[in-house]
Amino acid sequence: MRIDVVTLFPEFVRQCAEIGVVGRAQRRGLLQVATWNPRDFATDAHRTVDGRPCGGGPGMVMRIEPLRTALAAMRQADPAPAHVIYLSPQGARLTQGRVAALAGMPRIALLCGRYEGVDERLLAHEVDEELSIGDYVLSGGELAAAVLIDAVGRLQEGALNDAQSATQDSFTDGLLDCPHYAKPLHDPYGDVPAVLQGGDHAAIRRWRLKQSLGRTWLRRPDLLSQCVLDEESRALLDEFRREYLASRVP
Ligand code: 4FV
């Protein structure tokens, strides 16, 4: 997969994509991240990329021309069509489902805003999709782009040493993840649950599913309402709820 990033801070984005699983995915040739700095495509002496907002108001706005030229250069560099994404609070919320869909594309391009944002005409003519990583305001789209590169990069076939870990991710089945433990089995902070020490993999699978269901019910009931639970899951959730409510009776 190829990811092109249009950003005023290319070194930051490249560094984010060189660490951990994503960095390894790049070294394994599973992922290629390229950056394009609009300032390199500004034609005036001061290499201006921003302008005062038309109609007045605070801050600055990213101008059309350097971005249009940078996007044209990006397309020129590789014939593969790019699905262009603008990261902004006005976008649809990024979900694991959308991440999985994007991870299957051969090429995406991420447009990182700065200042108050980007001239709307550029967005209307060049952007296929607008995505938000959350309802808060960042000083730039680079962190959101790094989030997307990481989420998509780790799903590239062969990126995770144990492909299974992607299938057992949070949200993959719409539920929050179960608790995780490592040795020591006994510690002042508590013991590892006995079921995880018993080697009964069927019981371990049920325990983990029950914990995921219970946590989702407690912490993200909005997610649970979007899930279609099978008979086993309904029974395990009922079991969790009964035990939880019983544990809270003084
Ligand atoms: C953002 C978000 C975000 C808005 C103005 C960049 C900033 C500045 N991007 N999810 N939340 N972007 O806050 O994606 O240009």
UniProtKB/TrEMBL annotation:
Subunit-structure text: Homodimer.
GO molecular function: tRNA (guanine(37)-N1)-methyltransferase activity
GO biological process, one term: tRNA N1-guanine methylation
Protein name per UniProt: tRNA (guanine-N(1)-)-methyltransferase
Keywords in alphabetical order: Cytoplasm, Methyltransferase, S-adenosyl-L-methionine, Transferase, tRNA processing
InterPro entries linked to this entry: Alpha/beta_knot_MTases (IPR029028), tRNA_m1G_MeTrfase_C_sf (IPR023148), tRNA_m1G_MeTrfase_TrmD (IPR002649), tRNA_m1G_MTases_N (IPR029026), tRNA_MeTrfase_TRMD/TRM10 (IPR016009)
Localization (cell): Cytoplasm
Limits of the tRNA methyltransferase TRMD/TRM10-type domain: 1-225
Family matches, as Pfam families: tRNA_m1G_MT
Entry's family note: Belongs to the RNA methyltransferase TrmD family.
EC number(s) on file: 2.1.1.228
Function per UniProt: Specifically methylates guanosine-37 in various tRNAs.
NCBIfam families: PRK00026.1, trmD
Catalytic activity: guanosine(37) in tRNA + S-adenosyl-L-methionine = N(1)-methylguanosine(37) in tRNA + S-adenosyl-L-homocysteine + H(+)
Annotated organism of origin: Aerosticca soli
Residues involved in S-adenosyl-L-methionine binding: 113, 133-138
Top-level EC class: transferase
Top-level taxonomic group: Bacteria
GO CC field: cytosol
